Amino acid sequence: xxxxxxxxxxxxxxDQLFSAPSARADRWRRITASCDAWQAGHAxxxxxxxxxxxxxxxEEFFAFPGTRQMAALLDRxxxxxxxxxxxxxxxxxxxxxxKSYRVGSDQAEQGDESDADLTFAPHHSNARPYFEVLxxxxxxxxxxxxxxxxxxxxxxxxxxxxxxxxxxxxxEDAFCAxxxxxxxxxxxxxxxxxxxxxxNVPVLRSLLDPAFEDASADRTALGLCKILKRMRPELDLFxxxxxxxxxxxxxxxxxxxxxxxYSVEEPxxxxxxxxEGIQDRFQSPFFDNLKNxxxxxxxTFHALPIARGKSIFKSDWxxxxxxxxxINLFLAESSATTGGLDSLLEPTGNIxxxxxxxxxxxxxxxxxxxxxxxxxxxxxxxQALCAPGDIVILDRNCHKSHHYGCVLAGAQPLYVxxxxxxxxxxxxxxxxxxxxxxxxxxxxxxxxxxxxMVDLTNCTFDGHMYNTxxxxxxxxxxxPDVVFLWDEAWSAFAxxxxxxxxxxxxxAAADIEAYLASPEALKAYEAQQAKLGKNPTDxxxxxxxxxxxxxxxxLRVYQTSSTHKSLSAIRQGSMVVVKDVDxxxxxxxxxxxxxTHASTSxxxxxxxxxxxxRRQMELEGYGLVLNAIEIAxxxxxxxxxxxxxxxxxxxxxxxxxxxEKFRQSGFKDFLTPGITWADALKSVREDEFLxxxxxxxxxxGTAGFDGxxxxxxxxxxxxxxxxxxxxxxxxxxxxINNTRSDVAHxxxxxxxxxxxxxxxLAQGGEAGRxxxxxxxxxxxxxxxxxxxxxxxHPAFRKDAGKHTVEGxxxxxxxxxxxxxxxxxxxxxxxECDERLKxxxxxxxxxFVIPYPPGFPILVPGQVVTSHxxxxxxxxxxxxxxxxxxxxxxxxxxxxxxxxxxxK
Length: 903
Known about the structure:
Elements: H1 20-39, H2 45-59, H3 66-78, H4 82-98, H5 101-104, H6 115-118, E1 130-136, H7 144-152, E2 162-168, H8 171-180, E3 184-190, H9 202-211, H10 221-231, E4 236-241, H11 245-249, E5 259-262, H12 267-282, H13 285-295, H14 310-313, H15 319-325, H16 327-331, H17 350-362, E6 366-370, H18 373-385, E7 391-395, H19 400-409, E8 412-416, E9 420-421, E10 426-427, H20 432-444, E11 451-457, E12 464-466, H21 468-478, E13 483-487, H22 505-516, H23 519-532, H24 538-542, E14 556-561, H25 563-566, E15 574-580, H26 583-597, H27 604-641, H28 645-648, E16 650-651, H29 654-657, H30 677-686, E17 689-691, E18 695-699, H31 707-718, E19 724-725, E20 729-733, H32 740-780, H33 809-815, E21 822-825, H34 830-838, E22 849-851, H35 866-874, E23 879-881, E24 889-892, H36 894-900
Parallel strand pairs: 1-2, 1-3, 3-4, 4-5, 7-8, 7-11, 11-13, 13-14
Antiparallel strand pairs: 6-15, 9-10, 12-17, 14-15, 16-18, 18-20, 19-20, 21-24, 22-23
Helix pairs in contact: 1-2, 1-4, 2-3, 3-4, 8-10, 13-27, 17-27, 18-19, 18-26, 19-33, 20-21, 21-22, 27-32
């Protein structure tokens, strides 16, 4: 495991801030070990006291163990009670590890060292969900314990949840508590608190200094609420004011606050408001109704024999299926949309409500559940927004669903190329300059009006995240009404990371929306126009960070998310999140797209899982994502620091995955010595591309394995599953499901594999070492160049521009349906070489997609070039969609092309 002992050190690294929750548990285990060593005579009282005093700073931001237990432990140490100190530290450490203190809070006050509080209570399934409330108070610290007792007396047996208060007395401490304590779900801010923390330690300053660079920012209670809402949008914020509460409530900027109270005149109302806020997030309308439906005695006379499970459990032959899945799965099955259920196609009840909650959670105006994956979500958006002849600027390296979406809608793709990572046989993301150049070329030819959509993948399979705000603002400066589709199949979780959220479609859209409404937006636009002049050249526009005209912009953003890929939804769970000021004009079309693509028999459990996944993220997503990032950084660190593993394997850092020219901040990697949290935030703000830390490209070619081979070894011999490979790497992905045990298992496996390599090299002698070196060179150096998109054949460019590359892919696609207009040419042989050299040109009739790398190297209507053939000949993969090895490439015949050209 990567070392976390430096979390409180003089210069905390950027990655250590992600490890705060587990580092806290580790710190308590070290304190316990120090106490045990002191008791055994192997450590000093001073060492234990130093460790405790160091921990006290951040422990103030957590309800457990609380100030009383911390004070009691410190008193024991000061009284030279080694045995008592060790016992108390062990109790605290154990309860933090198994979270049993959350159950104990139902019976005893935190900080009360009674038997009830310190019993190792097991987790009870009927225990009330536990959370913590941050109270930012101007009251003297001496009164906090009394105030906490008053809050606990408000608890009632009928309360659905239970919470513990966490008191701080300053603006800075409130920010740190919300950042470091994922259990905080509500904040109550009183006016009159101090600005600065009473602690001046490196770990807090490393959090505070980058966040408070703007000295002119609002430092009032409302200002604190705005900062906390930006950092953690899911938080419920309450404001207590002893003056002008009515005026404050009317402030438009107070919309971040859930409710305001006049001082503390209504403590019970505040208590109930806090619980109501949690209940608002805890509700899962469809899942709740489905559970109620399953409890009812239902007679089924519809076309679903599996409903209620009688055909399963009464069978002598398939009863094991019921025993495997359990009765509730079948009790909750139905094809009905009444009786407490709802219709996914036209929701009016609990699915409609669930989608509204999802829109709120993800920051959109609308959300739509999809039960057959983000492939379908993407095609829905294309069909709803694009018409035949519309132009879509499209990453050629995107998921095949976008290409098929263009075919279905009749839109013409204008392919733009991502930067290549030839060393790893993969592509990155599309540079903004490439997108701008495509738009300006359309404008120069008078065809910009036909551009309907810019469609990009964020993040890419390999973890490249766009500077989404800059991309959209500069594109809107060229065409103010262009629509954006961001395929965020791999990054649904990013909404709950303050680091990654600004890079999401909805996070950036919210920032753009707020900016466009400010006076600064128009001033910036007018200043830039004055500088550029009336008719700026394309060169000037390319060299300028363009600013959109806030009066002309129509912000239209669509985000597709695979809820099942990074959240707790069943496979194929997906959603479309919409922030479109003109959605009303295409809403009917959007519903038609739903009718076209959605099943009339959607899986009830899948819908329920999407509903519950949203609930989970609104309540614990911040901590779960923090853990997922920590796991990824721990893997990176453990591999880099292990002397044997690092000899054969490595995880590519941002400096290897993103060319330097796209890392304007100079950021290299989270684990680079000297990189701080401020550097990471600067990278988020400035760099054109950011590498999602949860996606790890593990280079295995240096160990003599190609990606497909290594993936097979991990699965067959070590029970480790992954799904993305390249010629010389595999992709590891951490998510909210992973634990540190998973990290330990992976590291143990890599050590075992490395030991096997060492053994084979030792036994193979000089010949074995030469064969190994040759294999590594083949995988890491002799890699084929990646083929760019060539061009559509002129037969499919009758309606295209002279200097732009769009084409009528739909017509080419349907040529493949006519056997007499198609032919096959093997890629190995004289015929292929002759036609490449002397013609007639070879034109693909379908998509050709090798796995890996997983992107179409040929699309319908595309001219086949020598680069593509060379790449295919060097491929050593087993799976190539759209290509039959026995027959060769399926092509459109020269006669069919001539006919289409009118010859």
